[in-house]
Amino acid sequence: MEDLLVARFQMAMSLGFHIIFACVGIAMPLLMVIAEGMWLKTGDNTYLTLAKRWSKGTAIMFAVGAVSGTVLSFELGLLWPTFMAYAGPIIGMPFSLEGLAFFIEAIFLGIYLYGWERVPRKIHWMSGIMVLLGGTFSGIFVVTANAWMNTPVGFSIVDGKVTDIDPIAAMLNPSSFTQALHMTLAAFMAVAFAVAGIHAYFLRREPQNQFHRKAFAIALCVGAIVSILQPISGDISAKRLAKYQPIKLAAMEGQWETVRGAPLRIGGIPDEDNEVTRYALEIPKALSFLANFDPNSEIMGLKDVPRENRPPVAIVHFAFQIMVACGIVMIVAGILGGWLAWRKKGIPTQEWYLKFITICSPLGFIAIEAGWTVTEVGRQPWIIYNIMKTKDAVTSMPNLIIPFIGFTILYLFLSVVVVILLRRQIFYE
Question: What single-letter DSSP state applies at residue 425?
């Protein structure tokens, strides 16, 4: 049991670290492509400077993401050999395609970084679009593999052995679209608000600085648009959970009884011993409506599942509440920014609003970390839903605490390096 906990903590730490850089690799190229596109359209060299600065930041985060992603690939084999032996032949395709997308992203990022004076302007801009596509599809392919763990299809089991593997069906499992959509939008939303928050901070110091004004405008526009789309993808995800993983949905909402017309809970503290959620603000029948478009539809409760097959309800519930709260704040920030821009007929640079956006800058990444906690912890005790339990997939290798400490030190070192490089290359060049 101790080895299982250490393995899970190590995997959680690695994923939590890597996902930040993966999101930047997905979303940051969009910002730099927009900036370069504005330069090509207007001839304003401020946009050119902005595109070059953002591309340097993207390169730094890409390099660290490559290191942390390599560590993760080793950890999958070392920490979870039974899982990889079972699932590897089934989900090998999305991992292979992720590698292809990664190399496309790396190749065109090199062209983008070193081709400013070497290739025609439009070709250079197109290379940025290829970086964007490579990063986005790299993330999508990885997410489809994770989605398979939630809704495993594309194979048969005969006498305990996997047969009749259909890698396409496995990759296009029932959770693939919803998870990929939600994660991709989350990446764009988190990065856009983080960048907007950074430039909002500098705008408060220098309100007329054109570099920060243009950067803030691009990032806020992207963040505002995505913040409106994200609740739609969240609704689609909830409906998928109600159909394929009702126990995870019950844990997210702290729903203990199977009832018709289940309420939506805001806040609350799950009491797993007494099987009740206390102090929650309940909206009658809202969960049933959101899950099935029917306010009187039945929602499965946690009591229908044996205790040993339930996820840690408190962790899942609190993580879900944190994700939703962060998302709501960013949605408000995006809508408010659009309204202020419409009233002012320009960039919303009121002092109070810039402070608000600065505060919002980490919320997207907090929401992503919380959302992945819901996804992974909410599936427990299964590593492959209803097929293989996590405790049966862990390695028998002893002394896992030693690599755990080693990788922790590595991640701390990489974090310090990233902060130093970003400060030097982006803001103090």
Answer: I
